[in-house]
Design brief:
By secondary structure, the protein is α/β, with parallel strands linked by helices. The protein folds into two domains: 185 residues, FAD/NAD(P)-binding domain, CATH 3.50.50.60; 254 residues, Polyamine Oxidase, Chain A, domain 2, CATH 3.90.660. The strands form five sheets. Strands 1, 2, 9, 10, 11, 12 and 18 form a seven-stranded mixed beta sheet that branches. α1 packs parallel to α10, α7 packs across α9 and α8 packs across α9. The longest helix has 15 residues. The protein is globular. The chain binds flavin-adenine dinucleotide (FAD). The site of flavin-adenine dinucleotide has 36 residues, from α1 and β13.
């Protein structure tokens, strides 16, 4: 007999797992099909040497401010988050350093004072805003679905703009048209601080030079500051807790089961077909109420839904969705020593380092050169003029990452083009692994000269090409799948008609990082999608569910 479920979910990344868990908790029967042997998608850890855990993709959990952690009871299912006292720092090549902490703001302000009294005062003002107001702001941005398609809202009436005006005395509506660097230039002096905040925005959302995205760039820094930490044991433990929660509510997992086709009959999604070699009795799985695609929007409509079910212009616009901006070359290092930083950093990064340090933060021009190299020249950066990296280190707070006496710096990222855009072909970055690694090491040694080759035990590289082989959902190997620039953001993400997670195929919904609000394992996509499914499938969640207060319902 052909198996039937209420809902079939394609892909077991954090977004697919999240929606499977929500729906099963509402009492629906749910089957989740995952191509890989492991659940978790981009939320994974690897142990390339026994005893050493590295992060080939995601490394921080930024979703602590959102409702899903509570609604899905992740703590009950084993999720533990390490909050770091010092999360974010920056260092220049002449040894100036900043160490930003929302948990110890007075210390951070004191440290900033040696470079800029006005920035220290600004930091005090910023961190004096009650955390609950920041949570309200973050929820109104990330954990709220975009408005209904075609509904024009005056920017000043957007929920987060109203909250910003209420809680942040400095906020000026003019900021809505500016880039992050333009906003920072209005309020701040210290370039190292601005470059570090720009990088934090770029690794969580928009580029700091993109017009009209500056406020969002600021809130990305807030995600860093108050909503993040690292799951104890590594990012993959997040997937484990979610998988346990799913199983508790009865989700059926089919791993090693690649979905080859989404079945569509008379314009309505009716189930999936698994690949020939799937280790199951029935390759067809029927979905009586909905099919949810947890994989990249391009993969969904180019590979899984037959073209005859989709309008031609729609297929072209899917083709045109840009992948630029989020493909990362990831380096992980095992070292016998901690870095010994030059200049002020030796004292400022003490007794523990910020777990994410951007370097070198001398000038935004280095970041601009990197962007230009990657996005305009479609090649990879290999000189110190265009390399700026975050270097993350979790073993300071998490002993599971490395045996005593060793340290793991993982990941260290630089931006590279998506494989399909590279001027020298899709494998070009793979062919240049050693050259790029050496260039990054040179930049690191310029501020931590003790990290000489004899102190490095091993290096591991993961490229976007590697990622897209390992995880079919990572088209372009990118961490947010499609651009987070103004033209592919909010009610235009990934296309205007898909912004509310519905698709041209009835009962087929999207739940992947290519939907709003984009990359990161925030569980914001499944939470937002729940608002839509409650309406469309007439769900009746229990008292545990609370919607976003800013959600705008569909008009009849
Ligand atoms: C280098 C890098 C660094 C990152 N750093 C962070 C970070 O620090 N913090 C953070 O929160 N996020 C980070 N991210 C982003 C994060 O990993 C993604 O946003 C997240 O994994 C997206 O989740 P998803 O569920 O939408 O998709 P995915 O994680 O891509 O999951 C999709 C799943 O679908 C499966 N699949 C694909 N095709 C099929 C098919 N045909 N049939 C069945 N299954 C299929 C895949 O195997 C995969 O398991 C990073 C990403 C990268 C690449």
């Amino acid at each position: 007999m052909i198996p039937h479920y209420d809902v079939v979910v394609v892909g077991g990344g954090p977004n697919g797992l999240g929606i499977a868990c929500y729906l099963a908790k509402c009492g629906l029967t749910v089957c989740l099909c995952e191509d890989r042997l492991e659940l978790g998608g981009g939320v994974e850890n690897a142990e390339p040497l026994p005893g050493f855990r590295i992060d080939p993709h995601a490394t921080y959990f930024y979703g602590a401010a959102g409702p899903p952690v509570e609604q899905l009871e992740l703590a009950k299912f084993g999720f533990r988050l390490n909050y770091y006292r010092d999360l974010l720092g920056g260092i220049t090549s002449d040894g100036q350093a900043i160490n930003l902490s929302m948990y110890d703001p007075e210390r951070s302000a004191k440290l900033l004072e040696r470079y800029s009294k006005s920035d220290a005062d600004l930091w005090r003002l910023y961190t004096s805003i009650p955390i609950n107001d920041f949570v309200r702001l973050l929820r109104s941005i990330y954990w709220t679905p975009p408005p209904p398609v075609g509904k024009n809202i005056d920017p000043l009436d957007l929920p987060w703009v109203k909250i910003l005006r209420e809680i942040m005395p400095l906020f000026d509506p003019v900021w809505l048209d500016l880039s992050l660097f333009e906003i920072l230039d209005l309020v701040s002096q210290n370039e190292c601080l601005k470059v570090a905040m720009g990088m934090a925005a770029w690794y969580n959302g928009p580029h700091p030079d993109w017009a009209g995205t500056g406020v969002f760039g600021l809130t990305c820094n807030l995600l860093n500051g108050i909503s993040s930490g690292s799951p104890a044991g590594g990012m993959h433990t997040l997937a484990h807790s979610l998988a346990r929660a799913c199983m508790h509510h009865g989700v059926r997992f089919l791993t090693n089961c690649k979905v080859e086709e989404i079945l569509v009959e008379d314009g309505v999604a009716k189930g999936v077909v698994l690949s020939d070699d799937a280790p199951v009795q029935h390759r067809v799985i029927r979905a009586d109420r909905a099919v949810i695609s947890g994989i990249h929007v391009k993969h969904t409509f180019k590979k899984l839904v037959a073209p005859k079910h989709l309008p031609l212009d729609f297929r072209q616009r899917i083709e045109d969705v840009s992948l630029k901006g989020s493909s990362l070359f990831t380096l992980s290092l095992i070292s016998k020593e901690n870095p010994r930083w030059i200049g002020d950093a030796a004292e400022i990064f003490s007794p523990t380092f910020p777990t994410c340090i951007f370097l070198p933060c001398d000038s935004r021009e280095i970041l601009r050169n990197q962007t230009r190299t990657v996005d305009s020249y479609n090649t990879h950066p290999i000189s110190k003029d265009n390399i700026i990296v975050p270097i993350c280190q979790h073993d300071q707070c998490d002993p599971t990452r490395a045996p005593a006496g060793y340290h793991v710096f993982s990941p260290i990222y630089i931006q590279v083009p998506p494989p399909e855009d590279h001027v020298d072909g899709p494998r070009a970055v793979n062919d240049a692994k050693e050259e790029i690694t050496e260039a990054i090491m040179e930049v690191i040694r310029s501020v931590a000269p003790n990290l000489t080759p004899d102190k490095i035990v091993a290096k591991f590289v993961n490229t976007p090409y590697d990622s897209s082989l390992r995880n079919l959902g990572f088209v372009g190997g990118g961490w947010y799948g499609s651009r987070q620039a103004e033209d592919e953001w909010y009610e235009r993400r990934p296309l205007p008609e898909l912004a509310r997670y519905r698709t041209p195929v009835e009962r087929l919904y999207l739940c992947n990082q290519t939907s709003y609000p984009g990359g990161l394992a925030l569980f914001a996509v499944p939470y937002n999608l729940m608002h839509i499914l409650i309406e469309d499938l007439d769900l009746k969640p229990g008292a545990w569910w609370y919607p976003s207060p800013d959600y705008i319902k569909e008009e009849a």
